[in-house]
Design a protein that fits this description.
The chain is of the alpha+beta class. About 25% of the residues lie in helices and about 15% in strands. β5 and β6 form a beta hairpin.
Length: about 270
C-alpha cells in the first residue's frame, strides 16, 4: 500500500508505475484532474475504411468528453454523501462528509489504445463548505467499503506525525552527508530507535477518564512526593515498570555478625 499527497498523486506516470509494480495506492489528486463519469470511457478507434494505416488510439468527441473531479463532486446527488469518522482528535472525534465513485482517469488517454482501469475517486466535502476539500484516487478493490477508503486515506496524518517526530526528537534531519549509504545507515538507526520508543509507549496503560480530568488550578508539572507516598513518575502498574525495585525480605537477608567490644584499661 502506497500513500501520497497531491504533489505526487497528480503525476499519471507515478500512478502507472505503482500499478505496474502491483502496488495498491491511495494518493491525493488536484481538483482539475479529468475523469470519465461512472459507466463512461473513451470512444473506440475509428473503423478502418480500407485505405491508409488503421487507427488504434482512443477518441473523444465534443459530446463525449471527461470532466474534472471537482465537477464530478458537484454532480453527485445528496444521498451519495455520508459522514464518516476516522480517528479520535484532541477534544472530539474527527469526521467529515465523504463520497466515493468508480471512475476511469482520463488524463491524455487519447494517446492510449485501451481505456484505463476503473479506480476509486474519494471526495471529502465538509458540511457547510462552499466546495470540496480534498480528492483521492485509489486502486483498492471494488468491494472496499467507504469507511476503509477514508481511514486509509487519512493515514497520511500518522505518517507525517511520525516523520516530524523522527526529525525533531531522534535526529533524522541531522544528517549532513551526501552519500546514500551514510544516509541509509543514519535513517535505519533513527527508525530503529523510534520503533523501540513506540514499543515502550505501548507498554504503558492508558489513563482512565478520572485520571485525565485535573481539578482547576492543578499544575501541569509533577509534584514532589512526600516520604512514604508512591513515586508519581512511576507507572500505575508495577509489572510495566522497567526500573521497579524489588522489596527486600528481611527473613532471607543474612544478619550482620556481632561486633566485638574493645575494652581500654585506664592507665595507672
Amino acid at each position: 500500500m502506497v500513500l501520497a499527497d497531491a504533489g505526487s498523486g497528480a503525476d499519471g506516470a507515478f500512478r502507472t508505475g505503482l500499478s505496474g509494480l502491483g502496488l495498491d495506492y491511495v494518493v491525493g489528486v488536484q481538483p482539475t484532474l479529468s475523469v470519465w463519469r461512472p459507466g463512461e470511457e473513451p470512444l473506440p478507434p475509428k473503423p478502418w475504411r480500407g485505405k491508409g494505416r488503421p487507427t488504434s488510439l482512443m477518441r473523444r468527441s465534443p459530446d463525449h468528453r471527461p470532466i474534472s473531479v471537482k465537477a464530478m463532486a458537484q454532480e453527485l446527488p445528496q444521498d451519495a454523501w455520508r459522514t464518516i469518522g476516522w480517528r479520535e482528535g484532541t477534544n472530539t472525534d474527527l469526521g467529515s462528509r465523504f463520497a466515493a465513485v468508480r471512475v476511469r482517469p482520463a488524463s491524455r488517454d487519447y494517446n492510449l489504445t485501451t481505456p484505463r482501469a476503473q479506480e476509486w475517486l474519494l471526495i471529502e466535502w465538509p458540511e457547510g463548505d462552499a466546495e470540496p476539500l480534498k480528492y483521492w484516487l485509489s486502486t483498492l478493490a471494488a468491494d472496499t467499503s467507504l469507511e476503509r477508503l477514508v481511514s486509509t486515506a487519512k493515514l497520511r496524518w500518522r505518517i507525517e506525525r511520525d516523520y516530524q517526530e523522527l526529525k525533531q526528537e531522534l535526529g533524522l534531519g541531522h544528517y549532513e552527508g551526501r552519500g546514500w549509504r551514510g544516509f541509509h545507515h543514519h535513517a535505519s538507526l533513527c527508525i530503529a530507535a523510534y520503533g523501540f520508543l513506540i514499543s515502550q509507549r505501548e507498554a504503558i496503560p492508558p489513563l482512565s477518564a478520572d485520571q485525565n480530568q485535573k481539578p482547576p488550578g492543578t499544575s501541569r508539572f509533577p509534584r514532589l512526593s512526600t516520604p512514604g507516598s508512591p513515586d508519581p513518575t512511576r507507572t500505575t502498574r508495577a509489572k510495566f515498570d522497567r526500573h521497579r525495585q524489588t522489596a527486600l525480605d528481611c527473613r532471607t537477608q543474612s544478619q550482620p555478625s556481632a561486633m566485638s567490644m574493645l575494652h581500654q584499661d585506664n592507665a595507672c
